[in-house]
TrEMBL record:
GO terms for molecular function: hydrolase activity. This is Hydrolase. NCBIfam families: HAD-SF-IA-v3 (TIGR01509). It comes from Bifidobacterium vansinderenii. Pfam families: Hydrolase (PF00702). Signal peptide: none annotated. InterPro entries: HAD-like_sf, HAD-SF_hydro_IA, HAD_sf. The keyword Methyltransferase does not apply. The keyword DNA damage does not apply. Keywords: Hydrolase. It comes from the Bacteria.
Length: 220
């Protein structure tokens, strides 16, 4: 996927977040059988505790900004040395594909409908490059995205204004003629402050209705 050879500044463009917009990425539920089975339910629950200072979500944020997975695993072990769960991050990361629970209902159809009408579609995600590559290989409709900006590769995360500016430059799009869709209000706010039209994702039907108001389905 590469948008460098396409100038879409005169078009309506749609830029999608990945997790909880295009993809159902649910590591907690997806790894329950694996992690709870090996380390116990309490350890699995603690691993995914959003308030845990050195739990999964702490390292997930660091991975999204470009931390090497081996460094993340080593740091996790250092903070849990001697505990029964010391190897949990290693096991989680080795089986991270179990976090992918499919496309969000209706989003594969929406991507196909937009592409069929000639509306350029793109991706902008706080995620790791290997996860994006895995998802793109697994879910064919993601290959309709002309290019994807990935936070771990760029070492920039939404809602930093620089990542929206990078997307506009690399995709060759006019933010004022583009719609960014994300499930998190702060990312939507960052996009709007960077000149994009944007709205908070709730489901595919609502996204389709909002995109229709922007004229996404007027092209044939």
């Amino acid at each position: 996927m590469n948008g460098n050879n396409h100038d879409s500044r005169g078009d309506l463009n749609v830029v999608f977040d990945f997790c909880d917009v295009l993809l159902n990425w649910d590591p907690k539920s997806g790894t329950y059988d694996l992690l709870a089975g090996e380390f116990g339910v309490d350890a699995w629950r603690d691993f995914y505790d959003e308030d845990a200072p050195y739990g999964m979500w702490h390292y997930d944020g660091l991975l999204d900004i470009g931390l090497d997975p081996q460094e993340a695993a080593a740091d996790y072990r250092a903070h849990h040395r001697g505990e029964d769960c010391e190897r949990m991050f290693d096991v989680y990361y080795a089986h991270r594909e179990q976090a992918f629970r499919g496309m969000i209902t209706g989003m594969d159809t929406l991507l196909n409908d937009l592409a069929r009408r000639g509306v350029p579609v793109w991706g902008l995600t706080n995620f790791t490059q290997d996860a994006v590559d895995y998802a793109t290989a697994k879910y064919p409709s993601l290959r309709l995205l002309r290019d994807v900006i990935v936070s771990s590769t760029e070492r920039l995360k939404k809602p930093d204004h620089r990542i929206y500016e990078l997307a506009a430059e690399r995709f060759g799009i006019d933010p004022g003629r583009s719609v960014f869709i994300d499930d998190k209000m702060w990312n939507v706010r960052g996009a709007k402050e960077s000149g994009f039209r944007s709205f908070v994702f709730t489901n595919a039907l609502d996204a389709r209705a909002q995109l229709a108001q922007f004229g996404a389905f007027s092209r044939r």
